[in-house]
Queue: 2 jobs
Job 1
Amino acid sequence: MISYLEFEKPVAELQTRIAELRAASQGDDVDISTELQRLETKSAELLASTYASLTPWQKTQVARHPSRPHFRDYVERMFSDFMPLGGDRLYGDDEAIMGGFATIGGRKVMLIGHEKGHDTQSRLRHNFGMGKPEGYRKAIRLMEMAGRFGLPVVTLVDTSGAFPGIEAEERGQAEAIARSTEACLALPVPMVAVIVGEGGSGGAVALASAERVLMFEHAVYSVISPEGCASILWRTAERAPQAAEAMKMTAQDLLGLGVIDRIVPEPMGGAHRDPAAATDALSLAITDELNQLVGRDPAELRRKREDRFLAIGVKG
Amino acid sequence: MSWLTRVRNSLPFVAKRETPDNLWVKCPRCHEMLFAKEYEENLSVCPRCDYHGRIGADARLGQILDSGFELLSEPVVQEDPLKFRDSKRYTDRLKQARASNPHRDAFQSGFGTIEGRRAVVGVQDFMFMGGSMGMAVGQAFCNGAARALKERCGFIVCTAAGGARMQEGILSLMQMPKATVMTRRLREAGLPYIVVLTDPTTGGVTASYAMLGDIHIAEPDALIGFAGQRVIQETIREQLPEGFQRSEYLHKHGMVDMVVHRKELRQTLAGVLDYLSPAKAA
């Protein structure tokens, strides 16, 4: 059973009617297939028109949808022989940020990404995808290793932000994020980052300072959550929809601003409605990006990465 | 009449001051009334309780660099690319900030000497929109670093910011990797990069160039952290420990090398530069 978002109510109502009609006609002689067909078409059209004009706030909800595929789902569907690697060798292992060896399209890569979890237990275990210093330091360790052994780095970003907590501050959350960003920039191997769900602030950029940044069609990427922005600038979190609008956080806006390079299309109604189709599109995009980058000179890769960030803000 | 009074009086929407320039300032911590001139002469540190007051870019540059330094020109960046508006337009907020500040944005750099040692010093001004890091701040940081690379001297940055400038959205977030490109170049060139953390340094600034120094110096009792205290409290619903996210706390947890009184800052920087002089690294 799919859980509908608030703005999908009209679609949900239609689907309920279809289900009722089906149930009622069970064992009946009356042929309702034409009527069902008509309603299904109407429902699909409604979904299509809704998703064709999602507001930034609605996209935020899609990006946070509990059934949206996460790191685990992509690993299962897209990468063969994922070999998870654990620990930062300093403090512990943070399951909010996963990483390890993986193969995509026959190519060996280092895969790193946030995992939010899919039920209460796993959400707690993965800390809702909010990384701690040890998570970012694990990412640094894996990136440096990838660099030494010539493995391209692929990251899947999906976090509301790095964990705000006492122990995270004590262990240097800011330093860990800064060093992780630095590790991205220093890579002598290709790096492709994908914002698959939420790209929340420093916790996202620490894994997304790549030469190629991709984004799912309905993913969001911003400097602060719309709620956070609203509570600071409007002094109430209720203005989040307005904040989402003002911050320009959708993939379409960010492509225009030159912050991302490519939008990965999602199946109609969002990735959560057809994870297999979403994964296929993502797999295709990542493979294509890697094909274009693998074999390039390390200095050229670094320069490409540096130039994209140095260019931001320069008047021209 | 100071330039500030002049600007203030020429603004139609600000009430004209009836009294002359404030002669007294009140220490925000011990509430002692201090003679403004004496307070300034004491480097804006309260003589009674040692509270380190927030100071602007010009005052800071003057305190650290020998006289006769060169103030780098401010970069020209895209302004308000998002056409951002909350309760006010971002362009109006910028106008307002510029009316009460001698500079066009929150980051200034000076090239000169510290007790004879060549250095570029960058200063973030909390008084300009909370020191927030937008494209102008990011570009000014990069220009300061580029100048240090060109002069083959150290780059010292005094940080002060609530974090990224929300009105520039994702473009402010992109200043984190952008500034980091330059700290990496300094490192590769064997040039020292020294961070002086001042009150307050939080958010995206801390999570990028403020934590990437060869040496981290903090002013006493400065608020330094990644997440805001209210956010932490709302997330974990626990009492925050005493002195949490203050300089001394960060020192205890290994995030800064030393906590240095403003009176000794210049001397300390000179000493650090002696050990990290580019000639040794080359």
Job 2
Amino acid sequence: MDLPPLLIQTAGSLVAILALAGLARWMKLGSAPRIENAADASRAAHLVEDGFTPVDSACDAAGAGALVRDAQGRIMVIRRHGNHWAGRVLTPQARATCESHPGNGTIVIDCGEMRFGRTVLTIPDPETWAAAINRVKDAHDA
Amino acid sequence: MPDLNPTQYAVPLFVIAVLAEMIWAKFRAPAAYEPRDTLVSLAFGLGSTVAGALLGGVAVWVFFAAYAYRVFDLGAQWWTVWWAWPVCFLLDDFKYYWVHRAGHRIRWMWAAHVNHHSSQHYNLSTALRQTWTGPITFGFLFAVPLVLLGFHPVMIAICGGFNLIYQFWIHTEAIKRMPRWFEAVMNTPSHHRVHHATNPRYLDRNYAGVFIVWDKLFGTFTPEVDHEPIRYGIIKQLGSFNLLWAVFHEWIGMITDIWRAPWRHKLSYLLREPGWSHDNSRETSDMIRARWEARVGAAVAPTATSVADRNRIAGAQEAA
């Protein structure tokens, strides 16, 4: 049976791709950056949006993300994405719910973008942050 | 007639080079790679080959139709005209500069080209993150003048293939600078890192394919500065390793904007620059740069070590 050249090339490339990706995983390439404190959160916020300067922040207990707020009251959610950080300045489409525990609690943030998905963070005082997120009326009013 | 697809032959070299860079990364810069990001980049490369084969027919038809109206005729054995090859390569690279510039300044074309910029990493696998939807933009029309001049579509395709192969090796953080004469004329890892950066100072700069002289000629050249770490990717990072979302997200965003926009603004969402909005609710690259300039002013940028200094192959004073 003669297979079309494009099919053979595609199949060969697919094998090479899976092999390389598997090798990258086997070699343990990559890293898991952490947000440990307000300074880390500030640096990550600056990476998400140039010039974003937090005046308040709440860091995830596992270091996997943060919520930050700037002087204009804008709230940004930041979360780890592979080796890097990705985030969104929250808009009125954003919704937050929380599950509290003494001293710490979990906040679930849906930024309103389907593919960005939900971000789950364990932070101090999640109720206050959730209330602020649910009050956002526009991109500059948190 | 030559039956040559240079990129097809280069694929094994691409695989070997990515493998070599991964081994280098293992020992020198493990964070240069991320397995899921690598998988998405490589799948982009495979998908673009298939998409090109399936969707490229219209462009081929247009080129051969235009060739019938060529101004100069290189003869039935056009491939034997030796000087036509370097001239075609040079003009094709000039064409690439403009089609690439349009790819960043016209949202319809950006919807296809954004694929190449969607990784937050910059390594050889990023080079393979090629568009699936390029054939459904009008980018191929930029080559029609070359066809009308008399260059055979196959000659243009071969030159374009070599152009693409050249651009593979410049997607790396491992090489800091090439020799000065080379940096002056050719596109290099340093120049192209600038192109992939989202730092405001670098936005929409260094569109060159092979020869950086086009950027210098048309005012879009910016050199890499060593004191500012580069952030790669796009202004609004995807935050997802979903391949199909990475392929189609800007198309979905653009079509949604067109659908929602008042009638008199619909065409602008198709043809104006990415980030433009009729109500000024978003920022274009020019607006982001202006805001950055206003904020930073004459302030000294923070001291940092460039990626190439951290990850370099060559020593501090030697060209890699």
